[in-house]
Amino acid sequence: MGTKTIGIREDVYERLKARKREGESFTDLVDRLLAEAQTDWREGFGTLDADAAAQLERAAERSRRQTSAGLAHRQREVLEELSETEDMDETA
Fold first, then answer.
1. How would you label 4-28 residue by residue, b for 16+ Cβ within 10 Å and e otherwise?
2. pLDDT tens digits along 17-71
3. I want to staple 48 with a disulfide (CB 3.0 to 4.6 A). Which of 6, 12, 52, 64 is the partner?
4. CA–CA distance from 56 to each of 27, 44, 46, 60, 70 (Å)?
5. Which residues contact 16 (CB under 8 A, 6 or more apart)?
């Protein structure tokens, strides 16, 4: 495997150097930091405290009820329109 030379600012170099472990190469350091940065999206689940979780659940339930009510209302409107159309067809 080949190597690449990259340029970085002095302040970034110093920050990397400070995070480098004993016996660790800069390649190993960058590889480790990149691996740490790749987090699993599921990692943060379940970290809400009980109050925040309850508040979130209430908000989600309220949203589901509003969505359901809106869809039911629209469905009734469409059925009424269809019924009126059928009534007009029968009288024509």
1. eeeeeeeeeeeeeeeebeeeeeeee
2. 999 999 999 999 999 999 887 777 677 777 788 898 899 999 999 999 999 999 9
3. 52
4. 43, 15, 12, 6, 21
5. 8, 26, 29, 30
